Amino acid sequence: MSEFIKIKIKVNRKDLYRYCADLGLMLSWGIPLMDILTKKEYRPDNSGLKNINDILAKTISRGYSLSHGLQWIPRIFRPAFTKWVNLGERFGLLDEVFMQVAGILKFDQLIMGKNIKVKPEVLGDFILKLSGFLKDIDTSSLLITSDKLYIIDNKESPPTKNDILPLIKKLTDDPVICEWIDIIPGNFYKKRFFARSMSNYMNRPVFRKIANPLFWHLLDSAEEGGYIHEMIEILSLYLKDKYNILPQIDKIGDNIEDNIETEVETDVDILCEEGTSELAGKILEKTLNSRGKKCTIIIKNNRYMVVMEDDQTELHKFIEVKTEDHVLLRSVTNYLKSIIGMDIAEMKLRQYVKTDIKINNNDYILKAEFSPPHPMLPDDNWDKVKAELRDEPEIIDIEIENAQ
Fold first, then answer.
1. Cα–Cα distances in angstroms (integers) from residue 362 to residues 50, 337, 357, 401, in the given order
2. What is the mean pLDDT of the chain?
3. 222 and 188 in one domain?
4. Following DSSP, what letter does each residue of 220-283 receive, concatenated?
5. What dihedral do alpha carbons 304, 308, 311, 315 form, nearest 10°?
6. Is the dihedral of CA 300, 305, 308, 310 positive or negative?
7. Is residue 52 located within the same domain as residue 144?
8. pLDDT, tens digit (0-9, with 9 covering 90-100), for 232-258
């Protein structure tokens, strides 16, 4: 049975800064996200932030992502904010993302300060057009000279080469950006447009005219990590309107610092799934009563299967519910993982657990292994987008032993 409950949230930008900074720091220490959201060790003073924790914990336990939970609170977690968190989830960068967002919430000038010569909306429009342009070319076929950047067309015989710098210049009328385009050949490194941007910021004035160091660092890291187009979309949204990241307030002052303690108040209706704890417990009871005391749950393409004693059955039949709703089944399996002691939010790394557990008031030892659907690739392979498209199942193996 499901029901909607209403949660009231009242926070300001200063509250969110502390919240994001704390999340980023604790994630960087290796504390599981669900522990941060649910354990008493981290309970923010602000009641609005406590409610945000509750919403996000409920969302994740029902099988959705953290960024999906943020979408339930759109006045506080704006479009670029949510997209940035989603990027962090996909590429294992949540700690970095929250620390970077925290910085922007506190210091608006981290991206573009007062002395920048390019208007934010002009820069945002340009990098978005540049992203579209780069999607249409094969950067591996680029040839660089001292002042030219050619793309080689191997379809012609003999192969032809065309200078693409004039085409890039057509994307903007801003003279400072055009000055940066002119020096691209001299800075082009490993087929990347933004490589060594931080070094260039210190040595080439045009970089300092365009944006502050964080801007160049984000683009350099994103291009190296294989998510440059997603990062450009986020930055473009922010540059065109900073309230695509900053919380939406009703009255906006001329000075950004005037708004840092202005509260945003909103009501959120969230769906609560009931009965999941009992259904998760039923999986453990049936595993305990089986001959081998072993159970494997396989999740693939929203299909939930259970393998026990060489027999395979659908999870909803195994736990004796009529619905095949994958939201309910994901909620049950996530609750099961939380009972076992696994990190519900971690979908990249293999997890092993050995713990004491009570079933029907009796003590047992439970061993479990979680095999993720999209394992992390080696550090020297950055093709993570393709890894996310691999059609692999998520597997939870459970074994129960008598306590010693």
1. 34, 20, 8, 12
2. 83
3. no
4. HHHHHHT-HHHHHHHHHHHHH-GGGTS---SS--SSGGGGTT--EEEEEEEEEE-SHHHHHHHH
5. -20
6. negative
7. no
8. 999 999 999 999 999 887 655 545 555
Using DSSP, state whether 379 is helix, strand or coil: coil
Whole-number Å distance between alpha carbons of 368 and 238 = 43
The model scores a pTM over 0.85: no
Burial zone of 278 (CB within 10 Å; 0-12 exposed, 13-18 middle, 19+ buried) = exposed
Does the CA dihedral 60-61-62-63 come out positive or negative? positive
pLDDT band at 379 (very low <50, low <70, confident <90, very high): very low
For range 354-371, the mean pLDDT: 90
Assess whether 178 and 258 both reside in one domain: no
Residue that terminates a domain, selected from 157, 181, 211: 211
Asked if the structure places residue 144 within a domain, the reply is yes
Token digits of residue 170: 């057509």
Are 227 and 354 within one domain? no
Q: CA-to-CA distance for 18 and 283, rounded, in angstroms?
A: 40
Asked if residue 165 lies in contact with residue 155, where contact means CB atoms within 8 angstroms, the answer is: no
Containing structural domain, residue 356:
275-402
CATH number for the domain harbouring residue 375: 3.30.450.90
pLDDT digits (tens, 9 = 90+) for 69-95: 898 888 899 999 999 999 998 888 999
Enumerate residues 6+ apart whose C-beta is below 8 A from 336: 280, 283, 284, 297, 396
Sign of the CA dihedral running 184, 187, 189, 192: negative
- Residue (of 385, 379, 376, 380) closest to 350 by Cα position: 376
Residue 124 falls within a domain, yes or no?
no
pLDDT at 314 over 80: yes
Within this chain, do residues 292 and 332 fall inside the same structural domain, yes or no? yes
Q: Report CA Rg, the chain.
A: 25
Q: Is the domain of 252 the same as that of 103?
A: yes
Say how many domains are in the chain: 3
CA dist 122 → 109, 127, 129, 180, 240 (Å): 16, 9, 11, 14, 8
